[in-house]
Amino acid sequence: MSSKLAVVTGANRGLGQETARQLAALGYQVLSASRKGSDGLPPLDVEKPDQIKAFCTWVEKEFGRLEVLVNNAGIFLDATAGNFSPSTAFDVPAETVLRTFTINTLGAFQLCQGLIPLMRKNGYGRVVNVSSGMGQLSEMRQGWPAYRISKTSLNAVTRIFAGETSGSNILVNSICPGWVRTDMGGTDAERSIEQGVDTIVWAATLPDGGPTGGNFRDRKAIPW
Ligand SMILES: NC(=O)c1ccc[n+]([C@@H]2O[C@H](COP(=O)([O-])OP(=O)(O)OC[C@H]3O[C@@H](n4cnc5c(N)ncnc54)[C@H](OP(=O)(O)O)[C@@H]3O)[C@@H](O)[C@H]2O)c1
pTM higher than 0.85, yes or no? Predict the structure, then answer.
């Protein structure tokens, strides 16, 4: 059988780039999607529904199948360039909440809509939604409302598509990479990019019969 085909969004830097590198090292054929597009791939700005549709159509035409989708692309507008002073629910503009939701949540939602049908063809799929502990309702508190709401909603996307694909060997999970030293996480973060990617790659390569509809950090289930 030819190597498994994986799409990674936001793969031009940070956790996405390292996820793509590690999956390629494991023998996967990786489509490293990015806003600029590269290596013959169409651009994929997950804020733009027309680009998402065009990208999914392109994957279907070029390959007619897909095994892995890593919804990694994301923004953290509440904390710009290493300034982690939290925006509060009283001062964050509604536009910031909407734009963050559009990219972090709806982008992943539309890619699941467009690409999971290609997984169904061969009865195999692994979907990893790169979420965050900041989206856990069990830990929810004040600060960074746009980002928190987008990641809680992304966890709902995970549950919904896990339900839709139940019993089909398509495993859909959320993961939290921890606080990682990327452009988003900043230099004070606790984890290296390799540490952050570990659970993403684990969830992308789960064996048949593995968990679905779960939320994981360090390969272990965590509360929603
Ligand atoms: N770092 C952490 O501590 C941490 C913790 C928890 C969760 N996460 C999550 O991990 C994921 C990756 O974050 P990171 O730390 O690697 O951040 P990063 O270094 O800032 O990288 C973000 C990536 O997302 C892409 N992106 C942003 N907006 C996009 C859009 N509209 N369309 C397509 N791509 C877009 C960026 O592309 P451009 O270069 O074009 O902007 C970049 O490739 C995010 O979902 C983030 O929420 C990170």
Answer: yes
